[in-house]
Amino acid sequence: MSETCCWITAALLFCLVTHSSGQEKNDFYTTVSTLSDLIQTEKEVKASLLYYTKRLKIVQDTVLNFVQDSQPYDDLTSPSDVFDYLKHPVHAFQLIKRMTAGLKTVEAQIKRMRKFDPLINIREMRKQRLLPWDEDFQGLATSLVTLQDIYALDFHELTKGHLHTEIPRNRTIPGRLPLNARDCLNISQVALRQGMYDLAVKWAEQAVAKGRRRRTGFNPQARTGQPSRGRRQEVR
């Protein structure tokens, strides 16, 4: 049991060791505690984005009210009819009002949105290193490639989110999130840039396999002869 715990600890620490070229004195996100802080930061970003969508809804409603507010001259087709319509002073007043005060209401809502631009906060968070940089992502991807190579992790299980190895003996650390085809391709590109050509090819093959299974609607249950949920519903 203690041997398993040691292996788990070593594997996790290895995964978390990333080096940011922009921060020579800091190994960013090298501990679980700093990753826990990142989860809290993610919640703040989500809240900011959610509030932004609410503001967008207000702007959308304002714009649609202006655009969809039909006017009597919308149905006028001939220039003479339009001319006769605008000779009426109240009609002229309403048109000028619409294109000044009415349009300014729309402009004001759009300008107000700039104050709630979440990109401002996100850029500041990234500047203060509260959010990871691209270098951190590249570093963690490199660590994952190296971890797979050192412990001979099963590629298929790894793409499903599980750490399975037979070194020094058969064991598995289950995970809850799989890697998709894009993830495998990104890791392959990182391995290629690091000169790990054989591993880059293997990760690319996993990306292709996952992409093919997604396009064909591959169902593992079909290989065992077990009907999928959808097929069971059809039988009923």
From TrEMBL:
<dbReference type="Pfam" id="PF08336">
    <property type="entry name" value="P4Ha_N"/>
</dbReference>
<feature type="domain" description="Prolyl 4-hydroxylase N-terminal">
    <location>
        <begin position="32"/>
        <end position="164"/>
    </location>
</feature>
<dbReference type="InterPro" id="IPR013547">
    <property type="entry name" value="P4H_N"/>
</dbReference>
<keyword id="KW-0732">Signal</keyword>
<feature type="compositionally biased region" description="Polar residues">
    <location>
        <begin position="218"/>
        <end position="227"/>
    </location>
</feature>
<protein>
    <submittedName>
        <fullName>Putative prolyl 4-hydroxylase alpha-subunit</fullName>
    </submittedName>
</protein>
<feature type="signal peptide">
    <location>
        <begin position="1"/>
        <end position="22"/>
    </location>
</feature>
<dbReference type="GO" id="GO:0005783">
    <property type="term" value="C:endoplasmic reticulum"/>
</dbReference>
<dbReference type="GO" id="GO:0004656">
    <property type="term" value="F:procollagen-proline 4-dioxygenase activity"/>
</dbReference>
<feature type="region of interest" description="Disordered">
    <location>
        <begin position="212"/>
        <end position="236"/>
    </location>
</feature>
<dbReference type="InterPro" id="IPR011990">
    <property type="entry name" value="TPR-like_helical_dom_sf"/>
</dbReference>
